[in-house]
């Protein structure tokens, strides 16, 4: 009888170990969705967007820089306040080949990697004296397929290469420095 009970306990422990191995043991969820950004290269209804949200201050002084890219155009905006009032806007022509190359470079830099846990989905309020970077994939109605963020304080849900991703978006705007030169970010 002791041997039968010991055998059943051993089988039970093996089953528990297998369940923990194959179900992750409750670790935080990290997403790589979408699996590949390149799938959007020929999709005119999908944009990638990068936003720099400046230090938290008065609505009169608050600034954001936002670059939105799709296969047809690149749009750069300097925004005032927290409601997105456009101070400056520049639009540049784009083409599907350029968009595909950008998406591939973003994929390599980890643009689609991030933590999708609900407790890190909202970037507002983090790094109050610094900047917040928001990385998004948007549909034609501007709903989010993906949204990750990171701060100059080292916090955030974004798991890609922050510096390379930021530089890639800036490089999409030929006169980025002139457009944003007087923006305190």
Helix content: 25-40%
CATH architecture: 2-Layer Sandwich
Q: The biggest beta sheet, please?
A: 6 strands, antiparallel
Computed structural class: alpha+beta
Gross morphology is elongated
**CATH top level class name:** Alpha Beta
CATH topology: Mago nashi protein
Rounded to the nearest angstrom, the radius of gyration is 22 Å
Number of strand elements: 8
Low-confidence stretches: 27-34
In the sheet with the most strands, the strands line up as 5-4-3-2-7-8
Number of domains in the coordinates?
1
The tally of helices reads 4
Strand content: 25-35%
Order of helices and strands: HEEEEEHEEEHH
Account of the 3D structure:
The chain is an alpha+beta fold and 185 residues long. The chain has a single domain (31-177), classed as Mago nashi protein (2-Layer Sandwich). Helices cover 27% and strands 28% of the residues. The protein has helices at 2-23, 96-108, 162-171, 176-180, and strands spanning 30-31, 46-53, 63-69, 73-80, 85-93, 114-115, 132-139, 144-151. Strands 5-4-3-2-7-8 form a 6-stranded antiparallel β-sheet. A two-stranded antiparallel ribbon has the order 1-6. The chain is elongated, with a radius of gyration of 22 Å. Residues 27-34 have low confidence and may be disordered.
């Amino acid at each position: 009888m002791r041997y039968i009970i010991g055998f059943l306990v051993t089988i039970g422990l093996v089953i528990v170990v297998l369940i923990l191995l194959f179900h992750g043991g409750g670790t935080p969820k990290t997403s790589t969705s979408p699996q590949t950004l390149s799938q959007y290269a020929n999709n005119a209804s999908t944009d990638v967007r990068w936003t720099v949200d400046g230090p938290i201050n008065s609505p009169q002084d608050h600034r954001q820089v936002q670059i939105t890219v799709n296969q047809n155009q690149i749009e750069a905006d300097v925004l005032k306040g927290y409601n997105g009032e456009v101070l400056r806007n520049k639009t540049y022509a784009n083409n599907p080949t350029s968009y595909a190359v950008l998406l591939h470079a973003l994929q390599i830099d980890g643009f689609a990697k991030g933590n999708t846990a609900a407790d890190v989905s909202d970037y507002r309020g983090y790094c109050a004296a610094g900047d917040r970077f928001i990385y998004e994939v948007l549909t034609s109605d501007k709903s989010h397929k993906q949204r990750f963020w990171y701060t100059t304080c080292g916090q955030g849900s974004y798991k890609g290469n922050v510096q390379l991703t930021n530089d890639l978006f800036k490089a999409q705007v030929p006169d980025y420095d002139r457009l944003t030169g007087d923006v305190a970010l």
